[in-house]
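Design a sequence for this backbone.
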């Protein structure tokens, strides 16, 4: 924010140009006062702007310092993050290298394990194949051993069998030999053939011996066969000859010997086979055992090889997993290292950014500190200049007062001298006349009547004393209660009764109601006439003031419009009162029905002025509704809370602002100490608390204004409704005069509705005014001013006796004041709110608003604009290119500046407070 240079006030004895030489001392003094007044205004604006700059720049400096400290801390944090990330990245790279080495070693181990796996797998396969072959051999040898054992068993069985056969054959042979011997003895007869038989026997014996040797195996069979044959021969040849038996016996013996031999031979063969198969079995068993042992060994080797293969396979898988895990960990470590490098790089970048931001903030803080210090010094200079300007302004006003006084004294002296000369001339003239009449000058002086000047002066004083309590304004105030009773109570009763009396030809009631109407209408006509006079006077006064600018001119312009309407309606009402008086007079004279034309005229007049009221009140109600909604938009989000001591809050704010300015005055671009920053922060916190208190108070003023607009909206709506009913009542009057409405019902309903609506509002207003006047005396401190008043406008406090209960002034005095309708309310709630709104919107040259911060003042001025107190109301003139040597934008800016200057003029405080109070009114 730029700091406006404060213009130092010029010395008291400023040089005058040649054009001023012809001016009077009074005019020169007035000009000097205006110059000094502008000096005060400029200095106050410079002081306020400088204070605002101190507030803004000190806040900016503190925020910048805080941001710089935060940025430095952020820079350190990011640098720490970067260092930590770099350390972590280095560690991750080491981990990556370690895991890569682990993975390489694991891959090598995996290769070796896979080679061992293949080697042991092949060995296991070979061992399993050899073991399978050995098992096959074992099975084969076991089969051979089993077969040999079976053959051996079979051979041994054959040996046993053939041995038994041989033994049986030998036994039978012996039996046969015994039989042969027996039969030989029996066959001794056959001696001749003995030798041949012996020779044959020997031959046969040799053959038999050979047969025995050949048939050793089948000895048993041969013996058995021989025995069987011998038994057959024996038993078959017993009875025959002995030789035959002997031969047979020999034959049997030979056969048995052969069979025995065969059996023995078979037994021998079987024995040899048994031995052979035994040996074969042993050999097969040995081979089977050897094959079994070999199979077991090979199986053990296969199991060992399989175990080693599985172990190698597991080692290969383990090394593979280790390699994969190590590779994955190496990749993770690499990614982590990359991430840490990226983090470190980002952190370094962030640290640089934070460092740059810290540098920027420190630069901003240094600049803000320098500006705050410059503004603080400028504020001190502006304050000093303002003080000097105020002193000069006071002196100029003193000079002005002296000039006015001197001019008045000179005028009085000149008037006195002129009067003395006139008196001397008159005296001389009278002396001449007396000489002619024979009178002495002393006698002529004794018979002289008082001078015209004295009489005129005395007469003027008497007229003013008479006029003051009997002015039209005060006269109407006295008549208002009686007029309300006559209009809202008597008329609604009198009208229906008179209508009923006329229709029933009740002469007495007609005259009574006519007299009642004449009395009430007489009061009405006087009051309405006074109202018309007042409205006409106020309209003219408003017209004269409407060309001016300033807060008061707004009310003049409103009067110019509203009082013309009031003049119109009061004139119509006065005319209606005249019509009603004439009609009632005719009824009192004996014409019970009156004049129908007068009834029509009265109804038409009622409809006319009531219609005007309806239109006016409807428009005002709509505008008020819009204004109320716009007022609600101000200070949104702020909790309304009224401060009981606004002056104290503003004084504390001014003191805190001064302390802040002193703290900031010593700032330099260098970084201040922590204590200095803390002191500035403490003062700002104190100011911020007071600012929030002001905003809460402003929100409460907004709520009050909104409430007043709501009341105004309701009253205007009810007024419009009442006048609609009164318009209907006028129509009923016309209909009754024409005989279209029979009985008192129509007029009673219309009159009652009108009386209820308008009379209720009037009663409410009267009661409200009574309560305000009562409260102003009973508890004057309740709505006492909380801001500084304009110099010379504060009325002397009225003194009343205190109540015995100690709760305020006496109720008797308060009640008396409440009924005093001629006494305007000097200080009530609305006036207090207007004074507070003005104090918060006024410029710094006004004592009431000298400590209000610029931004809060701007907020309240925006509120003033919505309250219809803006520049367009201050000066309603439109931009005219032909008249104004400015563009439309420049014209609007100049009008805004003039409005702001008006708010910064201490001599217009009372005008502004009255204007704001008028805008807050709910009337």
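Sequence:
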């Amino acid at each position: 924010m730029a700091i406006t240079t404060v213009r130092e006030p010029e010395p008291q004895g400023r040089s005058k140009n040649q054009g001023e030489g012809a001016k009077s001392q009074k005019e020169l003094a007035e000009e000097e006062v205006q110059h000094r007044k502008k000096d005060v205004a400029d200095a106050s604006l410079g002081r306020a702007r400088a204070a605002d700059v101190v507030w803004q720049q000190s806040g900016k400096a503190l925020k910048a310092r805080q941001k710089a400290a935060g940025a430095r801390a952020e820079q350190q944090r990011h640098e720490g993050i970067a260092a930590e990330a770099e350390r972590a990245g280095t560690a991750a790279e080491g981990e990556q290298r370690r895991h890569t080495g682990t993975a390489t070693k694991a891959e090598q181990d995996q290769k070796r394990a896979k080679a061992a796996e293949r080697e042991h797998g092949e060995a296991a396969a070979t061992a399993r194949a050899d073991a399978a072959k050995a098992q096959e051999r074992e099975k084969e040898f076991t089969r051979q051993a089993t077969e040999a054992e079976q053959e051996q068993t079979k051979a041994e069985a054959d040996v046993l069998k053939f041995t038994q056969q041989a033994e049986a054959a030998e036994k039978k042979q012996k039996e046969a030999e015994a039989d042969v011997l027996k039969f030989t003895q029996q066959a001794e007869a056959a001696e001749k053939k003995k030798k041949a038989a012996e020779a044959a026997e020997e031959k046969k014996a040799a053959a038999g011996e050979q047969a025995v040797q050949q048939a050793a195996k089948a000895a048993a069979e041969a013996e058995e066969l021989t025995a069987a044959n011998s038994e057959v021969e024996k038993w078959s040849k017993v009875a025959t000859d002995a030789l035959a038996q002997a031969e047979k016996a020999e034959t049997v013996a030979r056969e048995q010997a052969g069979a025995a031999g065969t059996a023995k031979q078979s037994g021998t063969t079987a024995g040899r086979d048994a031995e052979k198969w035994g040996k074969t079995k042993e050999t097969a068993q040995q081979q089977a055992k050897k094959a079994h042992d070999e199979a077991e060994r090979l199986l053990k080797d296969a199991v060992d090889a399989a175990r080693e293969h599985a172990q190698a396979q597991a080692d290969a898988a383990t090394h593979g997993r280790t390699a994969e895990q190590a590779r994955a960990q190496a990749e993770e470590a690499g990614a982590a290292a990359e991430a840490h490098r990226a983090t470190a790089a980002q952190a370094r970048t962030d640290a640089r950014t934070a460092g740059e931001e810290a540098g920027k903030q420190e630069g901003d803080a240094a600049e803000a500190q320098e500006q705050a210090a410059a503004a603080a010094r400028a504020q001190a200079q502006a304050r000093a200049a303002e003080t000097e300007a105020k002193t000069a302004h006071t002196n100029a006003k003193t000079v002005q007062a002296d000039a006015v006084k001197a001019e008045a004294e000179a005028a009085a002296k000149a008037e006195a001298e002129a009067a003395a000369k006139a008196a001397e001339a008159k005296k001389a003239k009278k002396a001449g006349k007396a000489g002619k009449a024979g009178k002495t000058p002393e006698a002529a002086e004794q018979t002289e009547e008082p001078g015209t000047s004295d009489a005129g002066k005395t007469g003027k004083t008497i007229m003013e004393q008479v006029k003051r309590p009997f002015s039209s304004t005060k006269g109407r105030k006295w008549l208002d209660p009686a007029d309300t009773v006559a209009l809202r109570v008597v008329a609604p009763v009198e009208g229906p009764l008179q209508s009923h009396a006329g229709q029933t030809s009740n002469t007495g009631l007609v005259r009574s109601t006519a007299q009642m109407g004449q009395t009430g209408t007489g009061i009405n006509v006087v009051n309405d006439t006074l109202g018309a006079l007042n409205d006409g006077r106020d309209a003219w006064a408003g017209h004269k003031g409407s060309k001016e600018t300033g807060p008061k001119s707004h009310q003049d312009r409103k009067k110019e419009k509203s009082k013309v309407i009031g003049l119109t309606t009061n004139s119509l009402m006065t005319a209606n009162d005249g019509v009603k008086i004439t009609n009632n007079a005719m009824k009192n004279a004996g014409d019970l029905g009156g004049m129908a034309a007068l009834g029509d005229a009265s109804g038409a007049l009622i409809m006319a002025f009531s219609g005007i009221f309806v239109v006016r009140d409807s428009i005002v109600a709509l505008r008020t509704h819009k204004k109320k909604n716009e007022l609600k938009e101000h200070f949104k989000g702020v909790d309304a809370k009224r401060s009981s001591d606004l002056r104290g809050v503003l004084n504390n704010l001014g003191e805190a602002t001064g302390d802040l300015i002193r703290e900031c005055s010593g700032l330099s671009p260098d970084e201040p100490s922590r204590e200095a920053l803390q002191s500035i922060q403490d003062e700002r916190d104190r100011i911020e608390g007071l600012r929030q208190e002001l905003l809460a108070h402003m929100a409460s003023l907004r709520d009050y204004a909104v409430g007043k607009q709501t009341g105004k909206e309701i009253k205007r709506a009810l007024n419009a409704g009442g006048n609609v009913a009164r318009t209907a009542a006028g129509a009923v009057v016309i209909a009754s005069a024409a005989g279209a409405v029979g009985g008192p019902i129509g007029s009673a309903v219309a009159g009652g509705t009108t009386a209820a609506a308008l009379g209720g509002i009037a009663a409410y207003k009267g009661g409200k005014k009574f309560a305000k006047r009562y409260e102003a005396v009973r508890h004057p401190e309740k709505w006492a001013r909380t801001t500084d008043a304009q110099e010379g406008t504060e009325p002397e406090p009225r003194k009343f006796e205190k109540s015995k209960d100690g709760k305020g002034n006496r109720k008797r005095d308060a009640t008396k004041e409440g009924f005093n309708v001629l006494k305007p309310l000097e200080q009530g709630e609305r006036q207090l709110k207007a004074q507070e709104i003005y104090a918060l919107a006024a410029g710094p040259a006004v004592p009431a608003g000298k400590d209000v911060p610029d931004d809060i003042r701007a907020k309240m001025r925006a509120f003033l604009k919505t309250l219809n107190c803006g520049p367009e109301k201050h000066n309603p003139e439109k931009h005219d290119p032909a008249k104004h040597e400015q563009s439309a934008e420049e014209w609007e800016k100049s009008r805004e500046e003039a409005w702001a200057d008006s708010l910064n003029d201490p001599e217009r405080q009372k005008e502004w407070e009255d204007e704001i109070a008028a805008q807050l009114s709910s009337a």
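The radius of gyration is 74 Å.
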